[in-house]
């Protein structure tokens, strides 16, 4: 403000031509009692930045004892002698926020929290609420006891057959070597066979969809019709209750091609089928 | 609430004290330095230098003109609060463990240690506030000798009517400050569990004791009757009664030399809040890394400060939830 006010010397006009000079700070008083301060500065990239700040001034009036007010004017002494007013950083700092809420039954709450904190409960207590979960059908039993173990078996048997084939190959490979034992990955074609096996296993898994929230009244051929429009379906498995023969609410659909499976997954997920909305996702590996 | 950490001391705190208006906080520690702080923002006003040994105790006169400190260098020093000058030194034969101004500020008591063949004593000194602050009585006007068990802490009851002292053996006694006679002696804490602190309620009609037997007791000044008992799970070093709200704050913790086992919640270095009437624990404030040696509450009840073995003073200004908290019966009472 002041430079423009008392600029009498014409030589100072030079400043106006200098583009690097910042415009003076502006202060605008708003109607609601706040002030808007507009100032300019250069940032780190040497660019001109306009800073607009709205400032609300609140006057907090506090009544203190005159003795206390008088004491506030005291000079510092001792080790603090000559130090500027205000807390110094080497003696005063602000701690982290503490949430302190007194409560009536604090003791009981604290005890509970301590228990939840763990360590104390035995393994048995920890597992008390845990449920057994089948890896095949997510039912409440061990995987080995799964009623669908047999029905699901074809998929696993298919993969299980591969090692048998490999074993025959290996038998030949063994004879060729002079030493008694050759580790599988060193054997001729062994690595390839293993890879093939893994590949086949994975391919099968990757093209299988897990469909959940299937209606109890669903039929396997209905599902086949539904999914076949996206590509060739190699297998449809609808889990059924052994006694009632009703569908258990989930199914597996295997495609010949993963691309088709992905498409089906995208399209059918959220599709309404027999009063329920299907949920489709890629089947997770059972192992 | 955000505590203000005051780190002006290099060794463990021994006592902290607000002045009567609560704007200043004085702290003493084993590092021979006495500090004065503004309680509102934690700014250090200054230090009072001159002690040659650990400073055990501090008290400020009710008019905030004089500051008294007692130290292991066997002296009680009187300081000009404003300038930091030492105006008077009294020599004793043993270390001074507690000093306390009477409610009117005209007398000062000093509790001396029992050591080197000397019995523990409580000495009463007259204090004058003339133009020249260094004009003070040279000798104590009264010396009470504690022959049975040494006094560890002491203070003045309402109207300076009694001197009340806590002893090493867990008993509390009442003395007549004029004659020095023992009027009463009551074993209130377990035998041989030292009383570590005595602090009076604002009206000085009752006081609270903290003891190594893991309990604190609220007693009547008049007849030493036990009014309330607060049970905790750790040896206590300090206890304080809050004005404005009906709480007591207890501080303590397992001393490092006594630790034999470690648990998940090590040390219990927390300030414990108990309801004064219901004897019920309402909450804890953690933060210190060592046992709490001393707690003092702002005379207006808006803040409290704690000093720990870790060398820090933490000043806590209570926030709204503290003032809003009420028991159901209290709330009903407030509604009427």
Automatic annotation (TrEMBL), chain A:
Q: Where does the record place the region Disordered? A: 1-29, 171-198
Could you describe the subunit structure of this protein? Component of the eukaryotic translation initiation factor 3 (eIF-3) complex.
Protein known as? Eukaryotic translation initiation factor 3 subunit G
State what this protein does: RNA-binding component of the eukaryotic translation initiation factor 3 (eIF-3) complex, which is involved in protein synthesis of a specialized repertoire of mRNAs and, together with other initiation factors, stimulates binding of mRNA and methionyl-tRNAi to the 40S ribosome. The eIF-3 complex specifically targets and initiates translation of a subset of mRNAs involved in cell proliferation. This subunit can bind 18S rRNA.
Q: Which residues form the signal peptide?
A: none
| CDD domains xrefs | eIF3G, RRM_eIF3G_like
Q: Which HAMAP family match?
A: eIF3g
Source organism of this protein record:
Penicillium desertorum
Q: Does the keyword Nucleotide-binding apply?
A: no
In which domain of life is the source organism classified? Eukaryota
Chief location of this protein within or outside the cell: cytoplasm
| UniProt cross-references to PROSITE patterns, sorted A to Z | RRM (PS50102)
Which family is this sequence assigned to? Belongs to the eIF-3 subunit G family.
Output one GO BP term. Answer: formation of cytoplasmic translation initiation complex
Localization terms from the record: Cytoplasm
Indicate whether Transcription appears among the record's keywords: no
GO terms for CC? Answer: eukaryotic 43S preinitiation complex; eukaryotic 48S preinitiation complex; eukaryotic translation initiation factor 3 complex
Q: Where is the RRM domain?
A: 207-285
What are the record keywords, sorted?
A: Cytoplasm, Initiation factor, Protein biosynthesis, RNA-binding
UniProtKB/TrEMBL annotation, chain B:
Question: Where are this protein's WD repeats?
Answer: 6-37, 48-89, 285-315
Compartments where found: Cytoplasm
| Similarity comment: family membership | Belongs to the WD repeat STRAP family.
Q: Quaternary structure? A: Component of the eukaryotic translation initiation factor 3 (eIF-3) complex.
Please name the GO terms of the biological process aspect recorded for this protein, alphabetically: formation of cytoplasmic translation initiation complex
Name it.
Eukaryotic translation initiation factor 3 subunit I
Gene3D superfamilies, alphabetically? YVTN repeat-like/Quinoprotein amine dehydrogenase
Q: What is the scientific name of the source organism?
A: Penicillium flavigenum
Q: Does the keyword Cytoplasm apply?
A: yes
What are the leading ranks of the lineage?
Eukaryota, Fungi, Dikarya, Ascomycota, Pezizomycotina
Q: Source organism's superkingdom?
A: Eukaryota
Presence of the UniProt keyword Repeat in the record: yes
Q: Which UniProt keywords apply?
A: Cytoplasm, Initiation factor, Protein biosynthesis, Repeat, WD repeat
PANTHER family assigned: EUKARYOTIC TRANSLATION INITIATION FACTOR 3 SUBUNIT I (PTHR19877:SF1)
Q: GO MF terms on file?
A: RNA binding; translation initiation factor activity
Instruction: Describe the task this protein carries out.
Output: Component of the eukaryotic translation initiation factor 3 (eIF-3) complex, which is involved in protein synthesis of a specialized repertoire of mRNAs and, together with other initiation factors, stimulates binding of mRNA and methionyl-tRNAi to the 40S ribosome. The eIF-3 complex specifically targets and initiates translation of a subset of mRNAs involved in cell proliferation.
Gene Ontology cellular component?
eukaryotic 43S preinitiation complex; eukaryotic 48S preinitiation complex; eukaryotic translation initiation factor 3 complex, eIF3m
Give the encoding gene's name. Answer: TIF34
Signal peptide as annotated in the record? none
């Amino acid at each position: 403000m002041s430079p423009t006010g008392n600029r009498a010397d014409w030589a100072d006009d030079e400043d106006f031509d200098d583009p690097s000079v910042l415009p003076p700070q502006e202060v605008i008083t708003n109607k609601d009692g706040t002030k808007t301060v507009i100032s300019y500065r250069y940032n780190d990239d040497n660019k001109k930045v306009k800073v607009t700040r709205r400032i609300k001034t609140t006057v907090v009036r506090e009544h203190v004892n005159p003795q206390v007010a008088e004491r506030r004017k005291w000079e510092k002494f001792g080790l603090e002698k000559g130090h500027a007013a205000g807390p110094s950083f080497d003696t005063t700092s602000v701690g982290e926020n503490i949430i302190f809420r007194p409560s009536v039954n604090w003791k009981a709450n604290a005890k509970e929290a301590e228990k939840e904190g763990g360590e104390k409960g035995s393994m048995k207590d920890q597992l008390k609420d845990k449920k057994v979960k089948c890896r095949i059908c997510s039912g409440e039993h061990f995987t080995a006891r799964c009623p669908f173990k047999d029905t699901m078996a074809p998929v696993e048997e298919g993969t299980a057959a591969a090692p048998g084939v490999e074993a025959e190959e290996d038998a030949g490979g063994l004879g060729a070597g002079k030493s008694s034992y050759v580790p599988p990955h060193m054997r001729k074609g062994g690595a390839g066979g293993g890879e093939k096996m893994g590949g086949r296993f994975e391919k099968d898994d990757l093209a299988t969809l897990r469909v959940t929230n299937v209606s109890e009244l669903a039929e396997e051929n209905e599902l086949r019709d539904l999914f076949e429009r996206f590509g060739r379906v190699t297998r449809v498995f609808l889990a059924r209750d052994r006694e009632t023969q009703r569908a258990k609410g989930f199914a597996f659909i295997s495609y010949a091609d993963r691309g088709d499976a992905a498409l089906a997954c995208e399209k059918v997920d959220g599709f309404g089928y027999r009063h329920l909305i299907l949920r489709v996702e890629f089947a997770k590996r059972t192992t | 609430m955000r505590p203000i950490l005051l780190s002006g001391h290099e060794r463990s705190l021994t006592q902290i004290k607000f002045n009567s208006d609560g704007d200043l906080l004085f702290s003493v520690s084993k590092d021979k330095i006495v500090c004065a702080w503004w309680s509102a923002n934690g700014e250090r006003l200054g230090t009072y230098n001159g002690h040659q040994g650990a400073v055990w105790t501090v008290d400020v006169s009710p008019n905030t003109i004089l500051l008294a400190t007692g130290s292991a260098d066997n002296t009680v020093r009187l300081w000009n609060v404003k300038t930091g000058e030492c105006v008077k030194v009294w020599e004793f034969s043993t270390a001074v463990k507690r000093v306390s101004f009477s409610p009117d500020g005209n007398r000062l008591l000093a509790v001396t240690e029992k050591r080197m063949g000397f019995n523990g004593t409580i000495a009463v000194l007259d204090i004058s506030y003339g133009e020249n602050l260094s004009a003070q009585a040279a000798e104590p006007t009264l010396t009470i000798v504690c022959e049975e068990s040494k006094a560890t802490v002491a203070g003045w009851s309402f109207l300076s009517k009694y001197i009340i002292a806590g002893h090493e053996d867990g008993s509390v006694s009442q003395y007549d400050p004029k004659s020095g006679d023992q009027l009463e002696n009551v074993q209130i804490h377990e035998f041989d569990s030292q009383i570590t602190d005595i602090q009076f309620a604002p009206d000085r009609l009752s006081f609270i004791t903290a003891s190594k037997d893991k309990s604190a007791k609220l007693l009547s000044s008049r007849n030493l009757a036990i009014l309330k008992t607060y049970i905790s799970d750790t040896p206590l070093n300090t206890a304080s009664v809050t004005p404005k709200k009906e709480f007591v704050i207890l501080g303590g913790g397992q001393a490092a030399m006594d630790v034999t086992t470690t648990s998940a919640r090590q040390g219990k270095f927390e300030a414990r809040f108990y309801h004064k009437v219901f004897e019920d624990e309402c909450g804890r404030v953690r933060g210190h890394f060592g046992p709490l040696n001393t707690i003092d509450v702002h005379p207006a009840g808006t803040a409290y400060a704690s000093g720990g073995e870790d060398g820090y003073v933490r000043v806590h200004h209570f926030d709204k939830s503290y003032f809003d908290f009420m028991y159901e019966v209290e709330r009903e009472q407030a509604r009427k």
